[in-house]
Amino acid sequence: MLVDQATNDALPSRAAIDRGTASLPPSLPLTGLGEEVVETHLLTELVPAFNGPKTSANYYGFVTGGVLPIAEFADHVVTAFDQNVSVHLPDQSISTVVEDRALRALVTLLGLDDEAWQGRTFTTGATGANVLGLACGREAVIQKHSASDELGVGELGLLAACMRAGIGEIQVLTAMGHSSLYKAASVVGLGRAAVKDIGSGPEQPWKIDIGLLQRELQRDRVASIVVISAGEVNTGRFSTGGAEEMQQIRNLCDKYKAWLHVDGAFGLFARCLPHTPEFAALRESVSGLELADSITGDGHKMLNVPYDCGFFLTRSSSVLFSVFQNPNAAYLSSGSSSVPSPLNIGLENSRRFRALPVYAVLMAYGRDGMAEIFTRQVRLARGISQFLHDSPSYTLLAQQQESSATAEEGINTSHLENTSKSVRFPNTHIIVLFRAEDDEINTDLVNRINATRRMYVSGTKWEGKPACRIAISTWKVDIVRDLKLVTGVLEQVLKGGS
Ligand SMILES: *Cc1c(COP(=O)(O)O)cnc(C)c1O
C-alpha cells in the first residue's frame, strides 16, 4: 500500500523533493499535530520525495539491494512485535532460536561448514561487520604474539596488550579495501593510516600481491590483519584468484601469526551461483574463502532484506566472545546453551530482530530460489557489458583476465579455461564499470544518466578519469526489459543531455 504512493522511477522529481522540503515543520511543535495529520504528511509529502532503490528495478547506484515482498512482510512483523534480541531466553521468546536458525541457513547457503563457523551474528551492515572483523583480528594477533597466559586487548586495552606482547604496530593489509575498512580501523584504535594497500599494480589493483604480502608480514614487531576484498566495490572483482591462492595466503598468515578477514559484503554471494560453466570463473574466485578466520557479509544488499542488516562470521567464537562479552551482568545470563546471547558476541545490547527478514527470505526461496535471483543479476550485468563492449562510444573497464597473474604463481587454471571458454565476461559478477569515449560526455556522464531519472548509477574514478558504475543487486531484475531500458538510456545520453 505504501509503495503505491511512490513512483517506479529511480529518482523522484526535483519538484517532489522541493515540495517535501517545503512541507517540513520548521521546528518541534508545541502541540502535536496528531497521528492522522502526520500520517498524511508522511504519505503525501515525504514518500514522493524518496529515491527508488527498493521501488525501482533500475536503481543501480552503490550496491543497495531491493526488498523482497516476504522480507518486507517479515520486517513489519518485527516492528509489530518489537522483540529485543539481546539475551537468549528460550522459555520467554523464540526470537534468539530463529536468529540462530537464520544464521545457520545463511552459513549453509554460502557453502560453509556450520560446525566450523560457530561464531556468527547479525550486524547493522557490512561496516559493522568489518568493525567486528578488525576487533577480532586485533584481539587474536596480539594473543598470538603473547605468552599463552597473557590477558588480551578486551581486558587490558590495546596499549597495554601491545606493550606486553612486544608489538610496536598493527597493520591492515588489503587490496582496494572498501572505505568502511578504513573507518573500522579508526574505530578499533588501529587508525586509518594502518590500512596499507598491497594491490597488484595498475593492471589488477584489486588483487593481493603475494610477494608484497609476504614482505609486509615479515616485518619485525609488527602484527598484521589481512583483508581480502570479495568483491571490490568499483569493479566487482576479487582479491584472490581462487582456492590455491587463498591457501597460499592462509599459510602465510599462519606462519606470521596474522588474522585473515574477508570483506565479502556482496561478492560473497557469488558462492551461491549455480555450478555451471557460465559461473565457473566467478565461483573459482570465491572458492577458498572458507580458509579465512572471519567473514563480513551484507543482508541488505544481495539478500534483499530491508536496512539495517549485515552479518559477521568467524571460526573463532572464543575470540568473538573475548572482545564482545557483556561482563558481570548476572541478570542477563542465559545459562548454558548452544545458542549464545547476542549481547555477548556483538556490539549492541538491545537490538532489533533483524534476523527475521533473512529467515523469511531464505525459507521462502531456498537455495535454488536464491541462485535464480543471483543468476538474473549476473546475466543482466553481462548483457550490459556486451553492449558497452560492442559500442564504439563506450569503454568497458577493469576487464583484465585473472589467468596471467595466477599463472605466475604457478596455479593451474586450465580447468577453468576449458569450462568457461565460450562464456563472455566470465569474471563479471554484478558490477559494470565503464566510461564514455568522448571526454566531454564522460565528465558529465553520471549526471546525464541520472537526469533521465529512469535509471540511477554511481560515479567513481578509474585510472584517474571519471567512470560510471552500474551495480545490479535487486531481485526485480528482468533481463529483457532492463537491458532494453539501460541500453536505451545509454544511447540517449550520447545524443546530448537527458
Ligand atoms: C557496501 C559495502 C560495505 C559497507 O557496507 P554497509 O552495509 O553499507 O555498511 C563494506 N564492504 C563492501 C565490500 C561493500 O560493498
TrEMBL record:
Its cofactor is pyridoxal 5'-phosphate. GO terms for biological process: carboxylic acid metabolic process. GO terms for cellular component: cytoplasm. The modification N6-(pyridoxal phosphate)lysine is found at residue 301. It comes from the Eukaryota. Belongs to the group II decarboxylase family. InterPro entries: Aromatic_deC, PyrdxlP-dep_de-COase, PyrdxlP-dep_Trfase, PyrdxlP-dep_Trfase_major, PyrdxlP-dep_Trfase_small. This is Aminotransferase class V domain-containing protein. Keywords: Lyase, Pyridoxal phosphate. The keyword Lyase applies. One of its GO terms (molecular function) is pyridoxal phosphate binding. SUPFAM superfamilies: PLP-dependent transferases (SSF53383).
